[in-house]
Structure formats: structure tokens, C-alpha cells
Design brief:
The chain has four helices and no strands. 87% of the residues lie in helices and 0% in strands. It has one domain.
Length: 146
């Protein structure tokens, strides 16, 4: 009876672990979009804060404070989404590591892999919901108009 060579085992382990890597690429793209939105929020916030330094009319000051409040809410949503996407990436990396190690350990890794993957997907789902919420807030002024 012929047994599998260690190289064959390693090749199979790598094949199993490669599939989640594509998911990592997708989540990394989402993280890139989220971080660029944070940068835009920070830039706008700095611009508005600089306008508050100079004496302006009270009505204009109230409008700036309202927009700053909106930017704060948007920033909180995006920061939470970034945290959840980062957690998703860490969980997917854990899945990849366990898939690879599972090829060499006799312990049944099915349940930990499933739990980590489902948790990663839940993190991603909630992050995308927060992202939609941030987009909704960002476009609220466009919908409501002047």
C-alpha cells in the first residue's frame, strides 16, 4: 500500500488554504475604500475647524457645528467598519493557518474552522452595513438640498 508523500500533503494543504486568500483580497479592497473615506472626513473636519478660528456670523458658525457633528457621526461609523473588517481579516488568516495545520494534526479542525469563518463573515456583514450607513449620512445633504 502506497502512502502519500509529505510533499503531496503540503500541496493539498496549500490548495485548501488558498481559497480564503481571495476573500482577503476583497476585504483588503474594502479596507482601502474605508480608509480613504476616513481621510476625506478628517480633511473636511480640519477645513471646518479652521473656519471656526476666524470670526464669522453666528448662523454660519451653527452650520459649521452641525456639519462637524455629522462628520463625527460618519467617522464613528467608518471607524467601527474598519475595526470589523480588520477583525474579519484576522479571522480569515486564522482560518488559513488552521486549514494548513489541520493537514498535519490528527485533531478534527472542522468546528473551529467553521466558527472562525462564520464569525469573519458576520464581521464583514456588519462592517458593510455600517459602510452603507455612513454613505447614507454623507449623501443626506445631497438628498435634502439647500
Amino acid at each position: 500500500m502506497m502512502t502519500e508523500l509529505p510533499v503531496t500533503n503540503i500541496a493539498h494543504a496549500i490548495q485548501l488554504a488558498v481559497a480564503p486568500v481571495f476573500l482577503l483580497t476583497g476585504v483588503a479592497s474594502i479596507l482601502s475604500v474605508l480608509t480613504s473615506r476616513v481621510a476625506r472626513i478628517i480633511d473636511r473636519s480640519r477645513a471646518l475647524h479652521s473656519k471656526l478660528i476666524y470670526p464669522i456670523q453666528q448662523q454660519k458658525s451653527d452650520e459649521i457645528h452641525a456639519e462637524l457633528l455629522m462628520l463625527t457621526r460618519r467617522g464613528k461609523l467608518i471607524n467601527r467598519a474598519i475595526g470589523l473588517c480588520t477583525a474579519c481579516v484576522l479571522l480569515i488568516c486564522s482560518v488559513i493557518a488552521i486549514l494548513f495545520l489541520g493537514s498535519f494534526v490528527t485533531y478534527n479542525m472542522d468546528i473551529p474552522i467553521a466558527l472562525l469563518f462564520v464569525t469573519a463573515m458576520l464581521c464583514l456583514i456588519v462592517a458593510l452595513i455600517l459602510f452603507i450607513g455612513e454613505i447614507y449620512l454623507a449623501t443626506a445633504n445631497v438628498r435634502n438640498g439647500p
